[in-house]
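Model the whole thing, not chain by chain.
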Amino acid sequence: MRTSLGMRILVLCVHAVLLVGALFMVLPMLWMLATSFKPPTEIAVWPPQLLPQAPTLDNYTGMFVVAPFGRFFLNSLGVSSVATLSVAVTSVLAGAVFAKYRFPGRTFLFMLIIATAIVPSESYMVPLYIQLIPIGWINTYQGFILPYLIMSFGIFLLRQHVSSAVPTELLEAARVDGASEWWILGRVITPLSGPALSAIGIFAFIQAWGAFIWPLLVVNNQLYFNMEVGLTAFQFKFSADYGKLMAGSVISVLPMLVVFLLLRRRIVDSMALTGLKG
Amino acid sequence: MTAYAIEGKRRRVWRLSRGGNWRTILFCYVALAPVLAIFAYARVYPIVWSVVLSFYDWNLIRARKPFIGLANYYRLFEDPNFLVALKNTAIYSISTVVLSTLLALPLAVFLARKSRLSVFYQTVYFLPVITPLVPMAIAWKWIYDYNYGILNYALSLFGISPIAWLTDPNIALWALIIMSVWKVLGYNLVLFMVGIRNIPAVYMEAANLDGASAWQRFRFVTFPLLKPILLYVLVTATINAFNVFTQVYVMTLGSQAAPGHAVRVLVFDIYQNAFQYFKMGYASAEAVTLTLIVLGFTLIQFRFARSQEV
Amino acid sequence: MGIGKSSSQKLNRRTVLKMAASAGLVGVGGLGYGRRAKAASDVTLDIWTGFPEVQPFYQAVAADYAKTHPNVKFTFFTTSLRETEQKLSASVPTGTGPDIFDIGTNISYNFIDNNLIEPNPPAIDKYLKSGAWNKFVVEFCTVNGKTYGLPIWEGSKASMFYNKAMFKDAGIANPPATFEELVAAAQKLVKTDSSGKMTRSGISLRLSGQGSGVTEKFRYMLEGAGGSVVERTASGKYHNNFDNDKGRGALQFYVDAVQKYKIDDPKVQHDADAFASGATAMLFREAWVIGEVQQKNPSLDYATAPIPKWTSSSPNRMLLQPWPIYVNGKSNNKDAAWEFVQYVTNQENSLRLTTMTGWVSERQDVDWKPLLDKVPQFGVFVSPPKDMDYYVEPILGPWDEIQTKMADRLVKAYVDPSLNGNPTKVADTIHEMAVEADNLLKDANLYGTT
């Protein structure tokens, strides 16, 4: 491709804009990171200084004295992993069925699933809490994780993806060869859904990791807390221990970043697959 | 695909039709059953309960729950807080969805390639999605600060006088829209990249061979094939925008905060009615109204998408 | 074709994910099931608080208590106040709540109304009325002649913080004793830069932000002037009590402060952070600011004094917001719980509470010398002047909503230029707020003028 001078300047401008944009994207994280190393005396300063004058690790070490954050971290990890797996499996299962099969009630069920995502969760939290009482799921991991096992948007995305990226001819060919629908689901559709599943994996992980309002309601025992709930220990009635709050937030962000970096490759670097010889 | 021996049994013939075969339909229901079961218990049942609640006057604690029919709904439309919240949320949602989609699309087209630089940009532009809300609020309050904020500093370099981004009630909502676009851009970016990666390389090569320019490639190859994902992005962005709460709420806390009434959003109003004023029935009615409005938008988007299908 | 390759890749990653998740599940499930058997006489008391900074205090007191009561074990839960309120509201009525909790009357009022909190047992009732707490506080805990809960700490007693160094620099010898002196002092203490932007406010008023806090600070002036948000009639009904010269005076003060005298500005840094960092010379706030200053700027030269009188002939007024601790009416261990609650509010633990957390204990019979020797600024909070005139908030269902809706209007009015120098507009604004408050009372069937 020939690049003219005008083209080069345009690209340079685009890069400049992207860089300035990137600065804005990263600024709050930078502030968060910098503050996690600041002693309390440097936090109320106005205008805020970005870099700490006397950096300290006290916030990181001090965190674990206030509450068992190691445990909270593991809880977050466990819950998020299970939720992500569950969302991935249920999304591809339901998404594929909605995309490639016709059956009575298909449109209704699909719109119902979308509709449940529209209702604000704050409005049905308490009814769900009350539902869990007779089955003894209050203050348990099961009660905690239940709402995060499925994601309407996951099913929606897989349906969009499968309907456009998986040619029906492929399914027909498999059927002709004697494959069962289950086999098709597992060996044809799922592998072709890599990018969408990776995206859903990222989003389900983030959603479960950031769970806050629901776990707070359902969990009484500190041993079941996740990071988000645990971090409220630093938010007092009129003020907050910002240093430790930021230290906890930094630690809390890392797994999400790792998941993103791992799954990002699956999205961008996978070859464009059609299943048909090009 | 590994070859399967064709056994030539008669049963095979039935599988060739796509639908209407009772075996296939059974398969569909069986496959959907576990998913639907969880949905039914964890979503549908409590939602139905809360819809039923909207016809009662209940304060969460009191055992007494008089039935009042549509009274909550009538009350809603005379409630200035609800109406302000509706207006704010509508402006907020439409702006955020349009801006974040318009910005994310070219960004995705530009970044959906394999290069070190792209990895850097993709990661950096995704960071706001995982930035925790408290640090985000503090950093943005600083960015928007009238005296010491970066934005006003940047404006001053161009000779523009400082703007009271957060404290001016007319501007506060727009300040929050910008912040929300910042937060959701990375999310849309990832989704568009999923869509773009799906476009068979053959089409792009064919377009190149035909001498198409970058813009023409985008318009005639990329964009049409992105439509399913575009629908997804628009629908989910709309739903998420109408349901916004915490990220707006944290900006109204403490000092140097946005004035509450200027950025009152629907879910905040619901939360306040349910858990501060304990008007559970009223809050449920509000939630139902919000759901119906957004459902309306969603259906319109789906209908529009279907009409665009070739 | 690409499928074979990618499917094995996918399988690998999925297998790893599955293994990790199963490990997670096993670990997580196993932890959930490991509980040791309880001895027959063991009692476990579950204590919830919406003040994370107070949890260490509860834990310390529980540890001490366990020395003399080895059969009593404790579990604790804390999170921010709003979330704790929500949790209590969902769990107490459904029987899944704690044994002991401290909470504000906006919630406990509802519980009491629905028999979820029982009246104090006779021993506790006697304890409450033994002189350990002043009569306003005892009355605050009384509903329909019966007492509920014990007041563990004080939510307000807001007083004036002032920066001694700044006062010295400005040549002001004493903290202001009246609002007139306050305005004069503030005008001298304000600092602006060369372009006219305010860099230090004379006094940091609550001009913005969400929620009833705005109205609470507005009431420092309103009550000081002799008015109040609502007034109770003989028959137990309520109506507004600020659609008068006192309400207008209070609003006028704010409007003048921001627009005429320019002693505060919404764009300057506010509140405790501002006081600690030197962005303001005066602040009306509660005792927790002391802890903040200790943390953020220990070398700050400051003192505390009562909030000035409205005029030289008005009394000194102080907001009393007792924060009670209750035993859950549905608890299975009520006796053990009450015994602990009595212990946690004794004199020794009251001193410990304030020393550890900065929250001022509500007891009036504690020897505060050990605390005041170290931190004299607590003086006005723990031992206010004997002639102090206290006021409390009414216990009403719609109280929070009335205050919050007033706050929404106040915040707009403070910076509204059409109110500057326009007493008629000020009066109209006050009137609209009063009508709204009365309507909320009417909705709750609480409105009455006789």
